[in-house]
Amino acid sequence: MAKIPFAKAYKNTDNEKNISVKELESIKISDPSNDIFNNLYCPTNGCNAKLSFKHSYVKSRKSFLSTWSNQIHSNYCNLQLIYVAKKNEMKKSSKRTGLNNNDISNIFDYGMSKFVKKNKKSKNKKKDRKSKNKSEHKDNNTKEKESKRASLSSNDITKKNDDSKRYPLKYLTPNDIGIKYVGSTVLLFGNINKINITKNKTLRINIEFNNKNITVESSKDFFRSEPSLLSELNILKKIFDKHKTNLKLLAITNIIPYDEKLVPTIYKSNHLCFTDDTNSTKNTLYTIIYKLQNKYKD
């Protein structure tokens, strides 16, 4: 569990109060049997996990608060989210520390094949089946070719026809986001509902998939990386608000716990990829703006 800075004593009673580790140390020395030690709880609102005070009697170790062994924190307890985030970071500590342009391209290629081009492929397969059924008279050479083709393994077919490479991260929709992904980098896909830029320069893109919504937010340094980024996003927002164009978003995000909720966070503009219903091509932020401006002549 994450380090617990203070506890709620007598939670949900008239005597409820915050109490720090230092204050508990003083009470332990002056009144070791004080009943406050049996009435310590997690400080997060809505979480009633009981805490235990571990007093250290040696200078080399510090006193601390811990969760009782039979207690479970609520799913969206800040302490639980921080703990899961740190745990995930430890798992990834020996792995990659960043994404290069080739990694990003592979991630979007696989995301496009998984979420966008999947339906088109299934339609094409149905057409192929119909055309094969119509061709009844074939010569021997054609039959031999077809039998060889049929004998190919699924791995051989994938190697020849599937150009997209699956980069080792999770490819998710809003329905999939949960506490187990806290601190993880994921590709998030959805249909864009709303684009907003707050007064304190935070980009918020609300996306939806199968009636489940989530908002992707930019990091604090997002707009500092590129001077023209703010004006370009305002152009995209203006076009989207006016024409309600059907845009889909693929975003490389990090799942961050904030204010008892999970926030998919983006750090760079090249971690955003856009596509629409007219074609199934991936577009950077600047490419989609250029295409939409030409389409609507704004």
Explain this structure to me?
With 298 residues, the protein is an alpha+beta fold. Among the domains are: 6-74, no CATH class; 170-296, Nucleic acid-binding proteins (OB fold (Dihydrolipoamide Acetyltransferase, E2P), Beta Barrel), CATH 2.40.50. The protein is 35% helix and 24% strand. It has a 5-stranded mixed barrel with strand order 7-8-9-11-10. The chain is elongated and about 75 Å long.
Give a topology summary.
Elements: E1 6-9, E2 17-20, H1 21-30, E3 40-41, E4 51-54, E5 64-67, H2 78-92, H3 101-116, H4 118-134, H5 140-151, H6 154-161, E6 170-172, E7 185-197, E8 203-209, E9 212-218, H7 229-243, E10 247-258, E11 261-266, E12 272-276, H8 285-296
Helix pairs in contact: 7-8
How would you sum up this structure in a few lines?
Among the domains are: 6-74, no CATH class; 170-296, Nucleic acid-binding proteins (OB fold (Dihydrolipoamide Acetyltransferase, E2P), Beta Barrel), CATH 2.40.50. Helices cover 35% and strands 24% of the residues. The protein has eight helices and twelve strands.
What distinguishing features does this structure have?
three-stranded antiparallel sheet, alpha+beta, five-stranded mixed beta barrel, 298 residues, 12 strands, 8 helices, elongated, OB fold (Dihydrolipoamide Acetyltransferase, E2P)
